[in-house]
């Protein structure tokens, strides 16, 4: 944690803390070490959010049991004109599962193909070479 905070402090000192790719990495890293507050703070201070930014925050909330926080973030993302990608939907559907919102999850699942054109598919976590 200390090393991450030092890297973040260095980014601020160098004046690059608002660089989107760097902040996306900070949000993800803070989330992975379990500090959702720092992840949220880094996200909120980001001036230009892209789909990776929004998805990182959605996944952070979803993975740490803050499922209800995902929906306002997703709504804000859409209002900002950013279109979700397949990974965004992984976070949203996971949040629905964690908080027991089955009907909301079903509606979002169907919107994946009807509204956004994503075809639901099973994805193996193992490389093809491992299964042959």
Automatic annotation (TrEMBL):
Gene3D superfamilies: Tetratricopeptide repeat domain. It holds the Pfam family PPR_2. GO terms for molecular function: RNA binding. The keyword Repeat applies. PROSITE patterns: PPR. GO terms for biological process: RNA modification. This is Pentatricopeptide repeat-containing protein. The keyword Transmembrane does not apply. Keywords: Repeat. PPR repeats lie at residues 50-84.
């Amino acid at each position: 944690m200390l090393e991450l905070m030092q890297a973040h402090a260095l980014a601020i000192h160098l004046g690059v803390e608002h660089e989107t790719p760097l902040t996306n990495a900070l949000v993800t890293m803070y989330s992975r070490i379990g500090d959702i507050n720092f992840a949220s703070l880094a996200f909120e201070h980001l001036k230009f959010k892209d789909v990776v930014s929004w998805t990182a925050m959605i996944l952070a909330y979803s993975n740490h049991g803050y499922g209800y926080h995902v929906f306002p973030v997703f709504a804000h993302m859409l209002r900002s004109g950013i279109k979700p990608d397949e990974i965004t939907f992984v976070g949203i559907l996971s949040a629905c599962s964690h908080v027991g919102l089955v009907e909301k999850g079903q509606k979002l699942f169907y919107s994946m193909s009807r509204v956004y054109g994503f075809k639901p598919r099973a994805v193996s976590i193992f490389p093809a070479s491992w299964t042959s």
